[in-house]
Hints:
Elements: H1 2-19, H2 23-42, H3 47-54, H4 58-66, H5 75-88, H6 93-99, H7 122-179, H8 185-193, E1 205-211, E2 215-221, E3 224-231, E4 236-241, E5 244-249, E6 255-259, E7 265-266, E8 274-279
Amino acid sequence: MxxxxxxxxxxxxxxxxxxxxxxxxxxxxxEIGAQLRQYREQHSxxxxxxxxxxxxxxxxxQAIEDGQLDQLPEPVYxxxxxxxxxxxxxxxxxxxxxxxxxxxxxxxxTKLSWQDGPQLRPIHLYLFYTxxxxxxxxxxxxxxxxxxxxxxxxxxxxxxxxxxxxxRAAAEAxxxxxxxxxxxxATVEAAKTGQKLDTSGNKPVMVSLTFKAESWMQVxxxxxxxxxxxxxxxxxxxxxxxxxxxxxxxxxGGVMIAVNNGQAELLGVPGVVKEVVFKxxxxxxxxxxxxxx
Length: 293
């Protein structure tokens, strides 16, 4: 009986509070969503790519852009989603998040009276909070246990895969060193991944990518998309182009890039989307990469 009364009381209170939710929050969300959508469309970035980079469901991103406050979680969580969305676009996420209010404005003169709801004794509240704490501790323990097990299994699998790749790469490098003259870094890495590179110099743009962390990638060679997908940590890939090569990374801080056998450098900041363009007319064989776009 006590649990039913508590449920009825909190449900009634929540409905009253939601009915008094201010219109300014809806208005500000609409303004924020319109700015983010305009910036995204100007840079020709689809919403699915934003969802992949930010790890936010597409329907939530769509709700932010459309200003649908009723389709989003509590304001404090919505503020976090706005910040991650803006930062993925290369904008100031904190500024966008602060523009969205999370504290409700002063309530109207009509106040909720304790007498309007069920009369509850302090002992009932004490028992309710005790039961809630016990349930929370049990659920948290189960989640932590399953998380640790999953992490251990994933770490073991990743270690085995990495060792297998290293052994295969060492065997391939040994075979190449015995049968051929020393070649360039990009040629050896291409042999590991099974790629075919043009070593005659007819393609003046060559980009080698080494992944220190998992990242979504899109590579465009001479106006044609050659690759789009997620590459795991430890992957080494090389692409060549005749005129222009465009690289887009979802996690720029996890990608090392080397152009025309030059020195490898970090593409950008971890967790940030970065696009770079390399043109044959602007590059020399030993020139370092230029970050554009």
